[in-house]
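We were asked to recover a plausible sequence for a given structure. The inputs and outputs are reproduced exactly as logged, with field labels preserved.

PROBLEM: sequence recovery
POSITIONS: 355
GIVEN STRUCTURE:
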């Protein structure tokens, strides 16, 4: 199993040298030997730990809101705390309840750091208050939240970890902000960097369309059903028509997302939303973790050339690992640990100790 990384700057190289998890290759669980098994295994086999969340609602100027689930390892009453805070961004139709979110928060809390899991508009029992929910292109909400946390805790090192869609939003935001971001570092895991390529990849075979494209489309339809009364108010989306048939993720983005955002075509939306186009603007250490056998993310979308032009990026690509998975343990009935979590935590520790 070969792992390769790219990080041209002396600081990036120093960070990698301080990451024990990158000093040996990822070895997948022998019974989860391909990307499909890894992805499904991560979804159904990993035991979901209990995490004691304390929810805070953040209101936005347009009337919308977001739920922040705080996990306090060390007292947050001290506004001058220098204890690191990590913000975790979930994937499509996910939330702080997801196994991968809770697992990485558990590993972060073992460092005696504080953590907060974002629930995007309408996600995980967060009330949707405006017809527009969240999407791959919208970075305004996370920008607002990070400013709020920085103003509240001006001395605390601030990091963010994004998974899948959340990773795309995070990398796009970091690229847009450049040196203005309050983040000390960011981690992108299983990012669909080039959304047009990934949308076609999900429909590249009948089997993939059925297993992934339509399942993701169905999850989004369920999201619409939960927030039917609010989304129905949109003048751009025919909600009843969208709910009347089975659709794929790409079809949902065509019928709903791009119309709500007023793009002429779905590919216009995907082009502007694709985070690979924003990597050139990244001015902080950015770790990107991808697997070549990811069944959701096209291997052609991994931004190798884009990362080569930005010395602040560290790109790690494994042959195996699936989508938001990287399970190593041999006992599939006791799946807890994930290589991706170890790498992410190693990276944040290394950033703190590297000038």
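RECOVERED SEQUENCE:
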């Amino acid at each position: 199993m070969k792992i390769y990384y790219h990080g041209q700057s002396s600081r990036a190289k120093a960070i990698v040298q301080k990451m024990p998890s990158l000093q040996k290759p990822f070895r997948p669980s022998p019974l989860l030997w391909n990307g499909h098994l890894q992805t499904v295994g991560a979804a159904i086999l990993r035991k979901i730990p209990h995490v004691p969340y304390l929810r805070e609602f953040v209101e936005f100027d347009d009337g919308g809101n977001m739920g922040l689930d705080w996990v306090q390892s060390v007292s947050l009453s001290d506004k001058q705390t220098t204890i690191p805070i990590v913000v975790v961004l979930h994937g499509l139709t996910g939330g702080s309840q997801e196994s991968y979110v809770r697992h990485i928060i558990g590993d972060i809390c073992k460092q005696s750091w504080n953590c907060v899991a974002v629930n995007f508009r309408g996600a995980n029992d967060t009330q949707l208050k405006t017809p527009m929910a969240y999407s791959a292109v919208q970075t305004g909400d996370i920008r607002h939240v990070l400013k709020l946390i920085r103003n509240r805790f001006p001395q605390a090192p601030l990091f963010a970890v994004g998974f899948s869609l959340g990773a795309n939003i995070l990398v796009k935001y970091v690229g847009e902000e450049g040196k203005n971001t309050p983040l000390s570092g960011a981690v992108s895991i299983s990012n669909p960097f080039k959304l047009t390529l990934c949308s076609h990849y999900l429909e590249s075979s009948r089997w993939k369309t059925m297993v992934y494209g339509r399942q993701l489309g169905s999850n989004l339809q369920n999201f619409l059903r939960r927030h039917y009364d609010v989304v129905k108010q949109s003048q751009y989306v025919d909600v009843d028509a969208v709910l009347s048939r089975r659709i794929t993720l790409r079809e949902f983005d065509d019928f709903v997302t791009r119309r709500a955002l007023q793009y002429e075509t779905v590919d216009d939306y995907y082009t502007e939303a694709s985070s690979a186009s924003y990597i050139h603007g990244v001015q902080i250490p950015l770790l990107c973790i991808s697997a070549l056998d990811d069944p959701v993310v096209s291997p052609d979308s991994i931004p190798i050339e884009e990362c080569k032009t930005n010395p602040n990026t560290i790109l790690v690509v494994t042959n195996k690992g699936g989508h938001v998975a990287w399970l190593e343990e041999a006992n599939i009935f006791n799946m807890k640990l994930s290589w991706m979590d170890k790498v992410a935590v190693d990276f944040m520790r290394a950033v703190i100790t590297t000038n």
